[in-house]
TrEMBL record:
Residues annotated as the enzyme's active site: 245
Protein source organism: Paraburkholderia monticola
Reactions that this protein is recorded to catalyse: 5-(methylsulfanyl)-alpha-D-ribose 1-phosphate = 5-(methylsulfanyl)-D-ribulose 1-phosphate; 5-deoxy-alpha-D-ribose 1-phosphate = 5-deoxy-D-ribulose 1-phosphate
Protein's name in the database: Methylthioribose-1-phosphate isomerase
Pathway: Amino-acid biosynthesis; L-methionine biosynthesis via salvage pathway; L-methionine from S-methyl-5-thio-alpha-D-ribose 1-phosphate: step 1/6
Binding residues annotated for substrate, in chain numbering: 54-56, 97, 204, 255-256
Function: Catalyzes the interconversion of methylthioribose-1-phosphate (MTR-1-P) into methylthioribulose-1-phosphate (MTRu-1-P). Also catalyzes the interconversion of 5-deoxyribose 1-phosphate and 5-deoxyribulose 1-phosphate. Part of a bifunctional DHAP-shunt salvage pathway for SAM by-products.
Length: 358
């Protein structure tokens, strides 16, 4: 059965149509559903930087199309000039956000695809780039579905599942990563309840996860981040499943700020803590979590609430957008190739060595 994660009235997260990139503005959801045209590479950079398109896999797909947007007007260039401009735009897009490795991964894949095209004209390389971006997009949809099937068995009848941030359909172009097993279980008629952390400061859990799961007809309950340990203590949570922006070679996991606290609480209460991601989020070139660059965002996101200042003027603010959960707290990593468990360093390397990982 085809999975229909979102209300069909909601447009796709990302769409490429008639050589034009359309992005659903996630900062306005769920109050307004606005699709914007990203008609310059600067517009794509801003959309990623300002979280109008967000979530690691979606950022990768948007960046791949972003290069097409950038190169659309350079089709008259010679091969050398075209490739030089392409590299320039890729470096620019790569600077939009530092933590999600999918951004760099997608841009690298686009660059290496372009370099491998024998054609001598910019126009021919452009066509090949568009085809590759569409392939990355299609693969994302398929990878989410496969993650869902692998993670499906984790959702026991009658269980309570906690998730943090939005690793859902809105964070991808498919059925999400952390949400994919939930959508599969729901498709199968399984009865279970999802608890969504609101996810301060930008409320991706409240605005996006609660919204998309509700639209899809799942049993979802919204909580504030600080309520999660209490629900665990009350026996309401049987499983935690979250997404990730980058997994280091040793299995350390970077994800939305607050994930670490959830993982520590889960360990304390003996609750399995799973991470779901496509293999493009596994970064074996980064040895461990301390090497992951954590994005630090502006003070207003913390000092304001819904556009109104809540903290005293002049207060010092910290706003790391992500944290790193040590692999010792991770029960398993659900990928499109199956579930990887400890010892993570050896088992993640084996996953890539099979040559099957993206
Ligand atoms: O800042 P965001 O909203 O881009 O953060 C998103 C997350 O932390 C997600 O959990 C992660 O990117 C995985 S999305 C499948």
């Amino acid at each position: 059965m085809a999975l229909q994660p979102l209300n069909s009235s909601l447009p796709p997260t990302i769409e490429w149509r008639d050589d034009t990139l359309y992005l659903l503005d996630q900062t306005r959801l769920p109050r307004e559903c606005v699709v914007e045209t990203a008609d310059s590479v600067e517009a794509v950079w801003r959309a990623i930087h300002e979280l109008r398109v967000r979530g690691a896999p979606a950022i990768g797909v948007a960046a791949a199309y972003g290069l097409c947007v950038a190169m659309k007007h350079e089709r008259q260039a010679s091969r050398e000039a075209f490739l030089a401009r392409l590299e320039h735009h890729a470096a620019y897009l790569d600077s939009a956000r530092p933590t999600a490795v999918n951004l760099h991964w997608a841009l690298e894949r686009m660059l290496s695809h372009a370099r491998g095209i024998a054609a001598q004209t910019g126009a021919a390389i452009y066509d090949a780039l568009v085809a590759e971006a569409m392939r990355i997009h299609r693969e994302d949809v398929e990878l989410c579905a496969r993650i869902g099937e692998h993670g499906r068995a984790l959702i026991a009848p009658g269980s309570g599942v906690l998730t943090h941030c939005n690793a859902g359909a809105l964070a991808t172009t498919g059925i999400g990563t952390a949400t994919a097993p939930l959508y599969c279980a729901h498709r199968d008629g399984e009865s279970f309840r999802v608890y969504a952390d609101e996810t301060r400061p930008l409320l991706q859990g409240a605005r996006l996860t609660a919204y998309e799961l509700q639209q899809a007809g799942l049993d979802v309950t919204l909580i504030t981040d600080s309520m999660a340990p209490t629900l665990m203590a009350q026996g309401l949570i049987d499983l935690v499943i979250v997404g990730t922006d980058r997994v280091a070679a040793n299995g350390d996991v970077a994800n939305k700020i607050g994930t670490l606290g959830v993982a520590i609480a889960a360990k304390h209460f003996g609750i399995p803590f799973y991470v779901a991601c496509p293999s493009s989020t596994l970064d074996l070139r980064t040895a461990c979590g301390v090497d992951i660059v954590i994005e630090e965002r502006g003070a207003d996101e913390v000092a304001q609430f819904a556009g109104r200042r809540i903290a005293p003027e002049g207060i010092q603010v910290r706003n790391p957008a992500f944290d790193v959960t040590p692999h010792a707290l991770v029960t398993g990593i659900v990928t499109e190739l199956g579930i990887v468990r400890a010892p993570f360093e050896a088992n993640l390397a084996a996953l890539f060595a099979k040559g099957e990982a993206v």
